[in-house]
Amino acid sequence: MNCLDRKLWRDLLRQWGQLIAIALVVSCGIASFVMSASAYDSLKLTQTAYYDRYRFAEVFASLKRAPESLRDRIAEIPGVAQTQTRIVVDVIVSIPEKVQPATGRMISLPSVQNPMLNDIYIRRGRYIEAGKADEVLISEAFAEANHLDLGDTLGAVINGRWQKLRIVGIAISPEYVYEIRGGGSLSPDNERFGILWIEREALANAFNMDGAFNNVTLTLSRDAKEEYVIDRLDRIIEPYGGLGAYPRADQLSNYIVSNEIKELENMATVIPTLFLAIAAFLLNVVLSRLIATQREQIAILKAFGYTKAAIGFHYLKFVMAIVLCGATLGTILGLWMGNGLTGIYADLFSFPLFRYNADWRVVFSAICISILGGVIGGLKSVYKAVSLPPAVAMRPEPPPEFKPTLVERWGLQKLFSPAGRIILRNLERKPIQASLSILGIALAVAILLTGRYFEDAITHLVEVQFRHVQREDLTIVFNEPRPARTRYEVAQLPGVIRSEVFRSVPAKLRYEHYQHRIGLTGIQANGELLRPIDRDLNRVNLPPDGVVLTKKLAEILHVKPGDLLTVEVLEADRPVRSIRVVGLVDELMGLSAYMEINALNRLMREGQTISGAYLSVDANLADKLYTRLKEIPAIAAFTTRQAALDSFNEMSGRNMRIMTLVLVTFASIITFSVVYNSARIALSERSRELASLRILGFTKGEIAFILLGEQAILILLAIPIGFALGYSFAAFMSAAYNQELFRLPLIVTKSAYAFTFLVTLITAFISGFIIRRQLNNLDLIAVLKTRE
Amino acid sequence: MTGINTNTQQKTVFQMEAVSKTYDMGEVKVRALRSIDLELFEGELIVLLGPSGSGKSTLLNILGGLDVPTEGKVWFKGRDLTLASDAALTQFRREYVGFVFQFYNLIPSLTAKENVALVTEIASHPMRPREALGLVGLDDRIDHFPAQLSGGEQQRVAIARAIAKRPQVLLCDEPTGALDFQTGKRVLEAIERVNKELGTTTAIITHNAGIAAMADKVITMRSGEITHIKHNRVKVTPSELEW
Predict the structure, then answer these.
(1) Is residue A209 part of a domain?
(2) ipTM over 0.90
(3) A398 to chain B nearest CA, in Å?
(4) pLDDT per position as a tens digit, A488-543
(5) How far apart are CA A456 and CA A472, in angstroms?
(6) Residues in contact with A755: Cβ distance below 8 Å, sequence separation at least 6, in sequence order
(7) Is B107–A7 a contact, with Cβ atoms under 8 angstroms apart?
(8) Which CATH number fits domain B42-68+83-240: 3.40.50.300, 2.30.40.10, 2.60.40.1190, 3.40.640.10?
(9) Which of B109, B143, B149 to probe by mutation at the A interface, max A CB count within 10 Å?
């Protein structure tokens, strides 16, 4: 080891506390980046590989009933690669020892296992045996939620007949990576909804589908035009009660999984990039000041004949040592957390195999960004020192020009003690350095606030969606539209306190060339159990005519109130009608198109018809209600608000909260590091001045006041700026999270500000305390021995 | 300017012609040197005397390539230093010049030996650090850090550091300025020994007139100008100095 390296090593050891604080900033930036990016990569890769290997279809369509011969006509559509016809039926399933019934989606399987579209991956057990009508495979999430295992039996009302089904296998399918029923429900409820795969013949017999099908899925050839195929398919299946074909992008499970991946991509790019950029900036500021304190040593090296390059390289190594330390720690931490985050997704989604994958290019680029930030900051100071003639650089910087400060020019100096005046003049003398310190602390404050913003935004979202909009306990859905009088029967069910009916109609909304598949929901105008609301949480009254859209849906369709939408109904006679947009609602989850129920009935030119009901239930009688519901064949499904809330919390809620925790922790570390380094470097820069003051008779308290008072002013100036910056970051996040699935409102609560303020103050106090102790050890004699 | 050489075979090491230096200190301009002419010879021991602000340090810094004049020319063995680039000046210092500063300027994180090695590592024909420290009488303190050494010891480490590369010129800026009488003498002895044994051209800045008696040539400065040059026919050893 040569002497310069030895100097490097000892310098590093001597300032370890400070350097670790700097390295931590780097590691926080890199860890958050690596965590999100690797989780994103893993999820994306797993999804793509799964879809590919298990032949996930690209076009989907349901219909009422079509003869199998139609299959050939479908297969002949130009661009269609493979065609698969199936029978898919939702039934009420009774699980042993469970009070609440569940909805089982029965999907037909060929009697002999062959590669097929939307192929199943059998986790445990075996494929069904040909000719055994009572054998089923069930989906893994459903099995787990209900503690079902191989050999267990389920009861199901199949076409009015009670039937026993034996579980022979537990499986998953690319079609149900995220097991969700659809029809308005966006949150999974694995206890009450599952997939049952059963031999096609058995299903055909039970539902009168011999030689027929009611569901078709396709894959496309490479050069196929998706829209064209969908259009042709729609025309072929329309006479058979086709419900409108849709592409993979609109397939619910895929839609949600892809959304989650997209959300993660946001998380993986926006926030960590912000973090990394801030870390690089802070590194730049801190290292440039740290190296500036070595100005005289640099000058001596130069006086002895060390070249600029040699000195530059020496400090480059100094910077690299710190950054690489942080980068190593950050990478390890990031990989560990990324692995954990991926594990959470593995729990949430049903993939055959979840492989954690960290792209080294991602890690490498994160490290490079940090190094760049550090190196630019460090070398800037080195360059400044080496470009001066050594004789000049060896002298302390020329005594700065002090002027009476603005405050003094205003004649307010009497308000300040000499120490106070030192503080003010110092700040005013080095406006750039003071501004950079303020900006650095402000950025730390801003990310802290941003971290808290997520927490508050999710809480607000849950509050709005599950308390203000959805207020029912239970939603029941009929297997087909029912006459309005059914409402009285519903109201008579045991435990029902209040019931409100709804009509929901699958449709395609079109405006100019924009379109979206969505159910029109007709609700009672004076309903209490589902209340469309505006931004201020006020109820939006449904006018007797026209449709009210979620603002996000209006955005997608590029419509505003007053515009005329084309509605292509996807059921019954598939009428096409025009309807005026009469208002917008500010719901934060999903997309909705609300109409007054009678208006919707009129639009459909049907009598009073309902699709289901929202129920408010007496908790004491709930079990009785569930038992009764299981016996009603007309009910295809039911969902509870609590289950939706739980599953939201489990999915996005949990992920977001974990991210929030990570961000808040990192932001706190960064805040501490910045505040501490800012004060610590100020101490190195001014130790002579402060020691001189001590020699002149200033007390320890007084010099602490001078040094820390200056820092306190910087922090107090930085906090409001940080709040403003943090608010704009939050606004940016809110814009980035304006998605179909959910939207983060721009809500920065008082408690978020208070929390940020408190954390900043606490870190300031801790670093102040450490600095204060170092001040006590100021070497007074050294000041006498060396020049001023 | 022609001095009377005690030894007519001596070669010129430094030659300065009409050298001026002006510092721009923000609102004021300080004229540190005003048109200086000077010649220094090989093996000479020169003492620069003068009050604070007389331009001694500026003169020394320019000779050592630490600073460049605003006007005028400086030659080192026929090479024009005023035309030299920053890299060339660095090379010049690395090969030919040893510096001793008033406040030692040791690297605090390196031991005495390592401070010397810092220079020997980049020199072409250096002595071993231990040898250099032996020359200044510090054989037993080589592994001490600057903070563990007295002022005089630190200054002698600085001298060892300056001479270890066997420089052609040794430039000392107030080497005893921060030291007491006895310690100062020991430092001067070390400098004299180097001058005598290695034949290094040596320039010492001081505002202590007592030191002048050990020099071959005494240059007195005031307000950026040389007011007087005196040649000592008889030099005294540092131990005989009184001040």
Answers:
(1) yes
(2) no
(3) 8
(4) 999 999 999 999 999 999 888 999 888 888 889 999 988 899 999 888 888 888 88
(5) 24
(6) A448, A452
(7) yes
(8) 3.40.50.300
(9) B109
